Amino acid sequence: MKKYGRGLATIMFGFGYGEGFPDHSIASIEIKEDERIVIRTAAADVGQGVITTVIQIAAEILRIKPDYFEVIQGDTHTTKNSGSTSATRQTYFTGNAVKKAAENLLANIYHYGSLEFRSNHPEINVEDGKIYMYDDPDNYITYWDLARTLDQNGKKLEAEGSFFPVTYKPDQEGQADKVYVAYTFLSQVIEVEVDTDTGMIDLLNVYTAIDLGKAINPKNVEGQIEGGTVQGLGMGMMEEQVIQDGITLNPDMSDYLVPTSVDIPKFKHYLVEDEDSEGPFGAKGVGEPTLIAAAPALANAVYDAVGIRFFELPLSPSRVKKALQEKAAEDE
Q: pLDDT digits over 132-156, tens only?
C-alpha cells in the first residue's frame, strides 16, 4: 500500500568565509579596440554560472549588450585574487568586484568622452556602446573609437574594482555584530508516496521558496535549486558509503548510488527578491543553501506518511521497510 506524506524544512545559510575571516575579490574590465570588452577575474566557474552573472552585471552598468563580453578566468598572469569558489560567495564577492570595476570604467568613459566632445559630464550620454551629446545624438563616438584614441596616447580604456567587506571576529561565546556577510533563507516542501510493502519512496513534487536578494539570472537560480535539491535528496535517499574493517565496500558508481534523471521529482520555484543592502543589485548567494533542506524535508514527509521518525540517512528501502516491520510488531 502506498501512503502520501508532505514534509517541510526551513534553513538559513550564512555565506562567505564568515567568523571574522578576511574575505575579498578583485576584478578588472578593459574595452579593446577590436570591439571586445574583457573581464578578468580569478573566480572559477564550476557550473554555477558565475561567468554569466558577471557578464550580466557588467553589461547592465556599461549599458551595452552582453554579446561583446569575454571573460578571462584564473590566469595568474593577468588576474588578481577572487577567493575560492566555495562558501556560496562568488556572486556576492566577485559580482560586487565586477560591478565596481564596471562603474569605474563607466566613469572613465564619461571622463575621456567629455574630453573628446570638449564638454561636461552632464551633457553626455552613454548607450549601446555609443557616447554622444544629449542635444546631438547622431554625432557620436563608440567605445571602440575611444579605446583607439586612448591607445594612440599610450593609455587603456580600463578599470579595476575590489570588494573588501568588513568582517567581524566572534567573541568567546561565538557572537559578533555580523558573523557572516549576509544570509540566504530557504524553505522547501517535499511530497512523497511511501510503499509500505517494499519501503520504496516515490518523490512527487518539490516546492522551494528562496530569499536570494535579487535573481541576477533566474534560469541559473532555478538550475542551482534543482541541482542542489537533487544532491540533498541523494544524501537523503540512497548515498551511503559502506565501510568494513577500514575498507570501502562500494567504491564505484555501480554500488554507490546517486540520483539519475529517472529519480528527479517535479519542481516548483518561488524566488523571493528581498534585496540585500551590500550584494550586487541586492543579490545574495544561492548555491549551497539549495541542498540543505532536502533531506530533513524528505524525513518529515516520510514521517507524515507512515508516522516513523528516522534519525539516520539514507532512507533506503531496506531501512524504511525494517522500521515499518518493527512498528507493525509493536502495534500488535
A: 999 999 999 999 999 999 999 999 9
Place of cell 514521517: 303
DSSP structural state of residue 261:
G
Q: Among the three residues 106, 136, 163, which one is the final residue of a domain in this structure?
A: 163
255-293 exposure pattern, b = at least 16 Cβ within 10 A, e = fewer: eebebeeeeebeeebebebeebebbbbbbbbbbbbbbbb
For 206-226, what is each residue's pLDDT tens digit? 999 999 999 999 999 999 999
**Number of other residues whose CB lies within 10 A of the CB of residue 174:** 8
For residues 19 and 51, the model is more confident at 51
Same domain for 195 and 121: no
**pLDDT surpassing 90 at residue 277:** no
Amino acid identity, residue 164? F
Residues 227, 91, single domain; the answer is no
Domain match, 182 and 138 both: no
Which of the residues are catalytic?
Answer: 288
Within 8 A by CB and 6+ apart from 246, the residues are: none
Task: Tell me which residue range forms the domain holding 235.
Answer: 2-14+177-331
pTM for the model stands at 0.91
Where is the domain boundary, 140, 163, 186? 163
Residue 42 confidence (pLDDT) above 90: yes
Q: Is residue 138 part of a domain?
A: yes
The three three-digit cell numbers of residue 30, written as one number: 578593459
Length of the chain: 332
Residue 154 CB neighbours (<10 A): 6
Q: How confident is the model at residue 168 (pLDDT cuts 50, 70, 90)?
A: confident
Q: Residue 320 maps to which CATH number?
A: 3.30.365.10
**Pair (324, 213) in one structural domain:** yes
* Residue 170 belongs to a domain: no
